[in-house]
Specification:
about 220 residues, alpha+beta, 5-stranded antiparallel β-sheet, 4-stranded antiparallel β-sheet, 11 strands, AD, LSM12_LSM
């Protein structure tokens, strides 16, 4: 119902027209956002100004939904556009809260299969992200893993890094700590992994050195 355009008449015959900005059934109040009668000031941007009126629902004689009004604050696009009018009974509203509770936006079909598929994929993505975080390893080891996994498929096995399920890199993660089987293909793969590892460690070391140099120059200011 938020954003619905309505016209109301109070028990004192005051009329207000605007959009429903808020509705509180416990306090039995509705807040209307009404175009302000005060023109924009000289220094304003010229945009429309609004007043907000808090009205007790049991003091409303008439509540009419205005048809064919496009609401700028409408967050319920499928609200029933039929006009609802309350007839006054001895100067009091005959339905009190009911005029608002009966205006219910239509709810579209919920595709549960898509929701479940998104949930399953989200769980898989979270598990994959957690699997990329080493347990009980140093920050340097994690940095090496993150850097190498951008180029080669990697996974953790305790504190060791497994690359392409064939090469294992043990702590302290130097090229001499890389091991694999003795087949020709594995030997070629080992040389490739060692080359990537050496390059990434050099890049990480340069990054740390540059960061330390920047901190030293900053502290000297």
């Amino acid at each position: 119902m938020l954003g619905l355009s309505i016209r109301v008449k109070t028990s004192t015959d005051d009329e207000y027209e605007g959009q429903i900005y808020a509705y509180d059934p416990k306090l039995n109040c509705v807040v209307l956002q009404c175009p302000s009668a005060i023109p924009p000031g000289v220094n304003s941007s010229g945009s429309q100004k609004y007043d907000f009126r808090i009205l007790k629902i049991n003091f409303l004689k008439d509540v009419i939904q205005l048809p064919n009004r496009k609401s700028s604050a409408d967050i319920n696009a499928n609200i029933n556009s039929s006009t609802n009018s309350l007839q006054s009974t001895n100067g009091q509203s005959s339905t009190n809260n009911n005029v608002f509770s009966t205006i219910v936006p239509s709810v579209g079909y919920v595709q549960m299969d898509r929701i479940q598929a998104k949930e399953i994929q989200s769980v898989k993505d979270t598990q994959a992200a957690l699997a990329r975080i080493g347990v009980g390893v140093t920050q340097e080891a994690q940095d090496i893993f993150d850097a190498m996994s951008k180029t080669l498929p990697c996974r953790w096995h305790k504190e060791s890094i497994i690359v392409l399920d064939e090469v294992i890199i043990n702590p302290p993660y130097d090229i001499n700590n890389c091991k694999t089987s003795k087949t020709v293909s594995s030997t070629e793969l080992l040389a490739r992994v060692q080359k990537v590892l050496e390059g990434e460690k050099r890049r990480l070391a340069n990054g740390r050195r540059d960061a330390n140099g920047w901190l030293s120059s900053t502290n000297g200011l």
